[in-house]
Amino acid sequence: MQKPVLSMLADHDAYIAEAPESLRPLLVRLRAQLAQALPDAEEVIAYKMPGFRIGNSIIAGYAAFSKQCGLYLSPAAIASHADDIAAAGLKSTKTGVTFSPIRPIPDGLVEKLALASRRENH
Length: 122
What we know:
By secondary structure, the chain is α+β, with helices and mostly antiparallel strands. It has helices at residues 12-18, 24-37, 75-80, 82-87, 107-121, and strands at residues 42-46, 49-54, 57-64, 69-72, 91-92, 96-99. It has one domain: Aspartate Aminotransferase, domain 1. Helix 2 crosses helix 5.
């Protein structure tokens, strides 16, 4: 597994500002989509990456690498939307989906995944 290219930062704005320039627009958009899908979630830095927490549960997190980004959710959210992820041409692991400027994650998929992760964690 790749390690995020960024160090421990204080908040989402600082994390995005330190990300590779080509990935910043993807991160800004992803953050906004997650905030919209999870309006009662608190923005936190957890596991050295930005996340959205409700209660004691991290519902979603994201990270920047050198050439791609990752969205991290509950395993059940990934599994329940595996067909949608594959249809978008994206790769996934048990807990994450990777995407890039060439192949961004579709808006609707972000919302579906965030809401599914919320159902599993809360």
